[in-house]
Amino acid sequence: MFEARLVQGNLLKKVLESLKDLLTEASWDCADTGIQLQAMDNSHVSLVSVQLRADGFDKFRCDRQLSMGMNLTSMSKILRCAANDDIITIKAQDQADNVTFVFESPNQEKVADYEMKLMNLDQEHLGIPETDYAAVIKLPAAEFQRIIKDLSQFGESVVISCTKEGVKFSAAGDIGVGNIKLAQTASVDKEEEAVTIEMQEPVTLTFACRYLNMFTKATCLAPQVTLSMSPEVPLVVEYKIGDMGHVRYYLAPKIED
Amino acid sequence: SRGQGVILQYFASH
Question: What is the maximum alpha-carbon separation in chain B?
Answer without folding.
Answer: 32
